[in-house]
Recover the amino acids of this structure.
């Protein structure tokens, strides 16, 4: 009699011309990785050579569950495929589990038949084209409904949710002041430092004030604020509305005959359109103060001197050129935020996708629009 | 007699000023089906969440399979939780994964089951829970309420747990689906020797599946076999269980109408 130990779960031996595979240990789902290794290393091909009956003795199995039974069926299946006469001995407990496990067997349906690569590429181009068309239509209809509702609100002001508007004004405006302040102050300091180091080569360091004044008022203040707000509030709009779509809250509104535009979108968009110019104004002032601090520190420019230089450098036009862009940027951020929010599907993944899209798209559009404004002002000679 | 699987002693749960559980004790034996009932807001879900370690309680002790989850480190905690399956009320399927992938999550992440067993077992559980096989590649958002429940049950059963928690398993199912769900739970419980803890409002479900019933009433708990609980002289308990008699009576009335 020869005994060879295959693994702790299976022992192979020959007894009176019979081959015996003795199973032991815990055949449970937690041990499946090890069980699979034992099965894989078992020399099934060697069984064929010997005459006599093959016995699978499963009486020594301590513990078995449905998951573990899958490995046992696998073993029995593999042995049966060899075409030997097999005898299986097992306790009722094991048999019960094996029967239960084998009762529920199925084959995974094919996902779908793969077509050739060039066809798939072609299909994806076509699909994307149609998607772009649909997206454009979608945006257009969203924009259309938005402005229709806006006009309706002007005609019947009681449809406008003032409470919601002021709540959002508080959240996106007032509560954004700390972060806008901090970032504007730092950018003011950074810009002033760069101005001083470069312009002092010509002894023209006082013109740093001109640089700061024009740069901040025309471009930096409003762009900086918009980008911070796109990250802070645009994303929040998408996530909020997206969760409401997922939770069927938007559908609940619709079946009450209420338009999500009145309740969700108009207050948000108008709140941000109002809040952004205010924040941009605040950002302008703080950034200029940051510059003044740096000038005072590095160049000993007094604050009075800074003020006089600043007033000589800037005109009201410079201020208004920056400020006129702010409501447009605010509108873009909130509109994109709400639009992407309404497009959220029923998965948590899509909230992430659309929130990302909302921020990226609104920053992209802000910069495009800013370039457009620059061209416009150049054309108008401002 | 085996050791009890869940022992709750002197549990107190309190949210702000609102007392939910006032020093309650509960012992759940191995292999029994315990139904937890109580009015809305009586703290059924809070009780289950306390057992599962999802909720920090004010005082008392909860031991699950002989361990206090709050005192274990990550690794030991994981080991205990491998022996527990939970069916959440709304299914709690991972919305970005297909049904098959959902069932494979515990198999893959908790015990590293290799292919092809991974797919085989996931399919086995799917069929066992009564899902059609072509649902395998569907996302949860494409399923009906009943199918979500079944998929969630399949996921809860993936690791052949010793204890199965069911939070309102039959809510939102039609009566036929609900009864077949009960039969399934009962069958699984018998063959797999599961311990089942079930929060339910479905009285027929209670009658068909539960060995014992725990009633959460006025911050306290009452436990006993169903036939004893129905006899308890308490207006709420009487009213609660009379609903079933009414329903049976209605059935009879409807039959006699013709």
């Amino acid at each position: 009699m020869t005994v060879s130990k295959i693994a702790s779960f299976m022992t192979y031996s020959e007894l009176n011309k019979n081959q015996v595979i003795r199973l032991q240990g815990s055949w449970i789902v937690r041990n499946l990785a090890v069980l699979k290794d034992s099965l894989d290393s078992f020399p099934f091909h060697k069984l064929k050579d010997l005459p006599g009956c093959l016995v699978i003795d499963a009486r020594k199995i301590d513990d078995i569950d449905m998951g573990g039974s899958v490995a046992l069926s696998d073993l029995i299946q593999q042995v049966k495929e060899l075409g030997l006469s097999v005898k299986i001995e097992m306790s009722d407990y094991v048999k019960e589990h094996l029967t239960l496990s084998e009762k529920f067997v199925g084959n995974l349906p094919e996902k779908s038949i793969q077509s050739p690569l060039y066809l798939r590429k072609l299909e994806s181009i076509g699909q994307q084209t149609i998607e772009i068309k649909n997206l454009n239509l979608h945006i257009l209809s969203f924009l259309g409904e938005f402005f229709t509702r806006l006009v309706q609100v002007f005609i019947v002001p009681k449809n406008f949710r003032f409470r919601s508007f002021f709540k959002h004004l508080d959240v996106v405006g007032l509560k954004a002041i700390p972060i806008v302040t901090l970032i504007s102050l730092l950018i003011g300091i950074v810009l002033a430092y760069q101005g001083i180091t470069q312009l002092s080569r010509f002894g023209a360091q006082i013109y740093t004030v001109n640089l700061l004044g024009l740069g901040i008022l025309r471009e930096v203040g409003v762009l900086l604020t918009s980008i911070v707000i796109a990250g802070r509030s645009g994303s929040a709009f998408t996530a909020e509305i997206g969760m409401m779509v997922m939770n069927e809250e938007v559908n609940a509104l619709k079946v009450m005959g209420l338009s999500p535009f009145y309740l969700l979108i108009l207050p948000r968009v108008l709140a941000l359109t109002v809040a952004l110019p205010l924040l941009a104004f605040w950002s302008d002032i703080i950034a200029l103060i940051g510059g003044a601090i740096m000038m005072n520190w590095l160049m000993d420019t007094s604050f009075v001197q800074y003020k006089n230089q600043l007033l000589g450098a800037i005109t009201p036009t410079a201020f208004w050129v920056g400020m006129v862009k702010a409501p447009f940027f605010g509108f873009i951020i909130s509109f994109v935020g709400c639009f992407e929010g309404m497009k959220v599907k029923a998965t948590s993944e899509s909230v992430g996708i659309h929130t990302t899209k909302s921020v990226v798209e609104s920053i992209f559009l802000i910069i495009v629009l800013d370039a457009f404004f620059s061209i416009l002002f150049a054309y108008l000679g401002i | 007699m085996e050791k009890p699987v869940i022992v709750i002693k002197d549990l107190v749960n309190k949210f702000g000023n609102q007392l939910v559980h006032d020093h309650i004790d509960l012992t759940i034996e191995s292999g029994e089906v315990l139904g937890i009932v109580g009015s809305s807001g009586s703290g059924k879900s809070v009780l289950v969440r306390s057992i599962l370690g999802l909720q920090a309680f004010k005082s008392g002790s909860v031991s699950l399979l002989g361990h206090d989850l709050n005192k274990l480190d990550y690794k030991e905690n994981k080991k205990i939780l491998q022996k527990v399956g939970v069916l959440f009320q709304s299914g709690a399927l991972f919305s970005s994964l297909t049904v098959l992938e959902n069932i494979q999550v515990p198999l893959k992440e908790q015990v590293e089951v290799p292919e092809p067993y991974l797919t085989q077992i996931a399919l086995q559980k799917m069929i066992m829970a009564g899902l059609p096989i072509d649902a395998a590649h569907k996302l949860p958002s494409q399923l009906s309420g009943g199918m979500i429940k079944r998929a969630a049950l399949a996921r809860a059963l993936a690791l052949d747990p010793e204890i199965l928690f069911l939070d309102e398993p039959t809510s939102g199912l039609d009566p036929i689906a609900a009864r077949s769900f009960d039969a399934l739970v009962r069958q699984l419980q018998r063959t797999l020797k599961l311990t089942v803890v079930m929060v339910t409002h479905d009285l027929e479900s209670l009658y068909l599946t539960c060995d014992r019933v725990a009633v959460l009433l006025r911050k306290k708990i009452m436990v006993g076999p169903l036939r004893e609980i129905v006899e308890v002289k308490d207006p709420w308990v009487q009213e609660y269980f009379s609903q079933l008699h009414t329903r049976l009576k209605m059935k009879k009335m409807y039959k006699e109408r013709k």
In short: Chain A has two domains: 2-104, 144-380. Confidence is low (pLDDT under 50) at residues 1-6 of chain A. Chain A touches chain B at residues 28-30, 32-33, 36, 65-68, 70-71, 74, 96-97, 100-101, 104-109, 111, 345-349 (CB under 8 Å).
